[in-house]
Amino acid sequence: MSTGFFDGIAPVRYAGPESTDPLSFRHYDPEARVMGRRLEDHLRFAVAYWHSFAWEGNDPFGGPTFVRPWHPQDEMGRARMKADVAFEMFALLGQPFFCFHDADVRPETGDYAGNLAGLDEITDYFGPKMEETGTGLLWGTANLFTHRRFMSGAATNPDPDVFAFAAATVKGCMDATHKLGGQNYVLWGGREGYETLLNTDLEQELDHLARFLHMVVDYKHKIGFQGTILIEPKPQEPTKHQYDYDVATTAGFLRKHGLESEVKINIECGHAVLAGHSFEHEIALAVAEGMFGSIDMNRNDYQSGWDTDQFPNNVPEVALAYYHILKGGGFGTGGTNFDAKLRRQSIDPQDLVAAHVGAMDVCARALKAAAAMLEDGGLEQALRERYAGWSRPEAQAMLQGDLAAIQKRVLDEGIAPEPRSGRQEILEAYVNRFV
Ligand code: XLS
Ligand code: NI
Ligand code: NI
Fold first, then answer.
1. Nearest ligand, CA of residue 141?
2. Which residues, by Cβ under 5 Å, contact ligand 3, an ion?
3. Please, where in the chain does CATH 3.20.20.150 lie?
4. Residues linked to residue 425 through DSSP beta bridges, in sequence order
5. pLDDT tens digits, residue range 158-210?
6. Using CA atoms, how far apart are residues 205 and 191, in angstroms rounded to an integer?
7. 33-376 CATH pick, 2.170.8.10, 3.40.50.720, 3.20.20.150, 3.30.160.390
8. Where are the alpha helices (DSSP H) in 52-111?
9. Residue 101 annotated to the active site
10. pLDDT value at position 241?
11. Which member of 42, 51, 102, 104 is catalytic?
12. Are 365 and 316 in contact (CB under 8 A)?
């Protein structure tokens, strides 16, 4: 039986690029084939439960703006109603996946046993709904940052009791993710960092973080969870400095602790920008490190310098992100999770659906552009030409040699390199032909 929340909104269909209906797809045809694969299987979209159904519209200056029938979110009956509405939206959109934190889906009881019981109950309630709507779980995760017990961190808290509470919480969330056939399990270190070094033993905290992560990996194997463990980097916010700063930092941390073959990275567009990088930089680096896992798709406002979690709307930027994903072989267990929220003035149920429709269209258009660039091969050809000198035997031999041998060659052969154009504007104009 329908909750009536989305009354008047029909299942979203592909209507073609000429459509002017904000509740129809203009570019996302799940069945369309791109590089021999269905678009739905390329993009692997997921709705983020927290932004769409748990966040009430608060900002630092104001309280809730959304008035939903499942508010206040403090008891199981309304948690079930929220789930009913969420799965109605997944079905309307034809979303193949969703993602959730424990705290998004069950009420906060204030104690561990109560929270775990709520999580077990609501995830049992999800099971048949997932069957019925054909929605899978892209990833589950634990919220180790909202409740005040986590104010000084979770795995990196100076208090071992908080470490214990966090470890027990993650175990419960991994069990729930496993039960629902989740394809990944995510750890975003929301408060794994510090506000001031004056009260922080950075070295000890990093050791605890590594130990915690080893326990997560060990537990994954113990229960036979087939999904991928993912770390989601972010440089700051909420803490002043977060340990999993960016892809480079995370990759180094994983290697230092022997976790590089066990853990991959979930890259969020807004977090990349906060770290002073582009989205495609973070993706390309993770691919190069063999650690690319999944993406959190959103965008930041370029003026505010804050993780604004807006829905994506910049096709050229998103196209470059998917270019590097496709070039790296596409998603394995990962996907495109819309870690994006409405603006707090967008209070209608229709806004929620339209936001996802628009974002799915941006991604579809971007992925098609990325595939067309790869198939055309222009960028790859330009790369091959730029690095062509390295296929010469003497260049390869140099990599096996040493500085003295190279010096001798430079002197003997009178090597005097001439600079060559990087052709950036020509390449930018090339990209513009596809987006
Ligand atoms: C917050 C993060 C969060 C993670 C999941 O900035 O993006 O939403 O994706 O904990
Ligand atoms: Ni984020
Ligand atoms: Ni995220």
1. 1
2. 268, 296, 339
3. 33-376
4. none
5. 999 999 999 999 999 999 999 999 999 999 999 999 999 999 999 999 999 99
6. 12
7. 3.20.20.150
8. 76-93, 102-105
9. yes
10. 97
11. 104
12. no
